[in-house]
Each structure stands twice: as C-alpha cells, then as structure tokens.
Amino acid sequence: MDNSCTIKTIGIPKLHSPLDAVQFIEDNEYVLLNPVVKILPKEAERPFQGVSQQRPATPIPFDTTNKNCFQKAGPRSRIFFDSETVQVGIVTCGGLCPGLNNVIRAIVNCLNYRYGVKKPIYGFRYGYYGIANKDYISLTPEVVKDIHNLGGSYLGSSRGHQDSKIMVDNIIELGIDILVTIGGDGTQKGAHQIYEEVTKRNKQISVIGVPKTVDNDLAYVDRTFGFETAIEQAQAPILAAHQEARSVYHGIGLVKLMGRDSGFIALHASISSGDVNIVLLPEAKFTMEELIEYLIIRFKSSEHCVIVCAEGAGQDILPPTGQTDKSGNTVLQDIGLYLKSEIPKRLAEKNIESKVIYIDPSYQIRCCKANPFDAAYSTILAQMCCHAAMAGKTDMIVGSINNQYVHVPLLKATEFRKKVDKNGTYFQAMLDQTGMPEWLDLIQNRKNPNPEIASPEPKLATL
C-alpha cells in the first residue's frame, strides 16, 4: 500500500486559471499533521540573536513521502481542464448527513460562476447505483439554488458495492472528466477503485472526494461536515431526557446517539450539554456491574441520572448479530434498547425503584438542515474540491488539518477510522465535567509508572 502523502495529478496543468482576486497556492506548500514542538531548555534560555532568529527566507523542506505533512488546498494559478469542454459528475453515497446539499450546490456554483464551466453537471442519483445504471439529472445554478435549505441529499443516496468496471465504462461513455464523490470511508474506498480502473485504461479522469461522515471518524482530517450540526441537534433530546428524569423518583434519562466505531458525537454533545452524568462510548469498555454500581452511588446524592451512549458502545457485552449490511459493516446490537430494559431490571434486583426514559433521535439528527458552521464549512470544502479537480489532481479528498485546508490521498483517508483519544483533552473534559468513574480499561490504558498497584475495582468519583 502507498503510505505517502504525495498527491497524484493526471497531467501537467498548462492553462491559466480564470479566477481573479485570489491568492494562488503553490504545490510545494504543505501543512504539518502535528504542529506541536518541544523546546529544549537550552534553546528556551538562549537569547535572541537578531536576524538569525527570524523566519527563514526559504521554507523548510519536508519529505512528502511520509505522513507528517499534507499538501495545502486552494486555487492554483494553472489548471488542467478547459472550462469550455470539461464535463463533471457528482455522486453522494452512504448515510445522510447535514450539509450534503450545501456541498452539491457549492460545487455547481463554483464551477459555473468562478471557472465558467459551460456544460451542465451530471448529478448521479442514489449513490454509485446511479453511475452503474446511468441514472442522473442535470445540475445547474438554477436547479440547485434552494437545495441548501433542505435536509437529506437532493441526489439521493445508497449503500453497497457496485462494479467499478461497469461504473468506469459509463463514466467514459458519458464523457466525464471529473468525478466528485461525496461520502465516508466506504465511499472513498470505492472512489479509489474507480481511480485504479481509470488508470488501467490510461484515461485522464480526475477522482476527487469530499469527506462525509457525521461520526467524524475519517482518518487524519480534523472534522467532517455535519458533525457540528449533529452535536447541536443532540442538545434538545438530551435536555428532554434530563427534564423527564428529574421529574420522577430515580429517573434515568437515556439518549442514544450515532457513532458506530467512534464516539465523537456522544462525547462532544455530552460536554456541550452539561447535564450528562454518564457517557458510554465504543472506545471505553464497561460492564453492567460497573454501570449499576455507579448508578447506585449516584442515587445516594441525586435522585436522577442522564446517560448518553453511542450506538457502538457496549457491543462486547452483547452477543454478536453475525450479520453485515450492504456496505459490509457489522450489524450492531441495539445498545439503547438493551440498557432501557436491563438497567431497571438489575436495579429492581437490588430493591431500587427506577424509571428509564429512552430517546433515540438518530434519524432526526442526520437528515436535518446544516447549521451555520457546517453550511459554511461544507461550502468551503466544496470549493477546495473544485480547485483541486480543475488543477488535474486525483485520487484524493479535501479536508482540514489544524484549521488549514489540505489534500489527503484516498488511501491515507481510509487507512484507519479515527477514534476518541481516552488520554486526550475532550475525554478528560468529559470526566472532569460529569464526575464519571474511570472504567477498568481506562485505568489499565493510562500511562502508569506502577501499573501493578492499580486498583482492581473501578475508581469512583465523588460528586
């Protein structure tokens, strides 16, 4: 597997860009993955030496064959495709996500108004199915002018594998020069397969991805569009669960949020709420015994509790389904329904009365309109996608790293799924805010100079 961050191009860009009033980005500008450096004591104490301490006149070179830096995104002074003849196609795949229509609209508008693309853009319907079956509609600024006010995907979406050879046959037959794939991990893996098939046929077709996963689990990039909207939309269900729980004796408000393999939405929504007492994530294992023990302690100081769980939490305490969906993902057990029935049953065994109020707002969240942050963010991602595509770049996605927009090779973007760092700032902030116990696996995973003296029991915080 190619492990480098080098961005591929389909040819030398020779045409002058039609863009004006912009600062062009050069291909030798890169963004560091980790900008944090340690200053040695001697360096920190050394006094400034005038000009020698200033920024060097020439940039420090970086090796782009490793994963330490990513090419900066933005408009180039030279482009590869001719605006008069270029044909563009757009496809949205996978689950719905706030901001999908903002991306579609921004691509169409940027290509038309800024680059002067003349041909109508093909919008393939229902994901890769639309490419495989030549099911598409024509997208113009007039067609997409109001779609940013809608949730869902204007083009529709689908999951599941399609034959890359058939898709490339149709892409070539339709004369497509640029294919924009809007989707998450599975979508971008499919995009790389399309790129490989195109390369085998020696065709100059650019394949550019815009990362879409509401779970925010795509590798390397800071965030994906829709994530901030999901956090915002989760606040109302959490507030409702809190109000319901506090209105009954030993009330337990239980909210299940999206997050198959990564618990970013549950974590960030809980911190934002301030009313959550227990957060259950896929990254942090727990047992029902630990959970019930803590609930009992909680009820000694408060008569209610709010629990937020990610959909992928607690799968190790449930029997596997043995099933996969159309995308090849393991079908998960419903941890929310399990906790809804199991918590009161186990508390009753200890003669403790309780009532669980269960809320699952997942579909309500993922199909809503993007909030202002995600609307702006998805628009800029779409524009960066246009700049990269017109410059002839391929086999990559656009994203942001350290608040800079960058190009990430598709193989890097799908190299792994990003997880919540249990030693990181946000997880620690959640523990500090909730007073939640550090479950056993957290104790064992923390950097402990004397791990053998760690307590075999959960460390319970005092509220």
From TrEMBL:
Record protein name field: 6-phosphofructokinase
Segments forming domain Phosphofructokinase: 88-387
Keyword annotations: ATP-binding, Glycolysis, Kinase, Magnesium, Metal-binding, Nucleotide-binding, Transferase
InterPro entries: ATP_PFK, PFKA, Phosphofructokinase_dom, PKF_sf, PyroP-dep_PFK_TP0108
Keyword Magnesium: yes
Necessary cofactors: Mg(2+)
Reactions it catalyzes: beta-D-fructose 6-phosphate + ATP = beta-D-fructose 1,6-bisphosphate + ADP + H(+)
Gene Ontology CC annotation, any one: cytoplasm
Organism listed in the record: Anaeromyces robustus
A single GO BP: fructose 6-phosphate metabolic process
Any one Pfam family match given in the protein's UniProt record, by short name: PFK
Protein function: Catalyzes the phosphorylation of D-fructose 6-phosphate to fructose 1,6-bisphosphate by ATP, the first committing step of glycolysis.
GO MF assignments: 6-phosphofructokinase activity; ATP binding; metal ion binding
Domain of life: Eukaryota
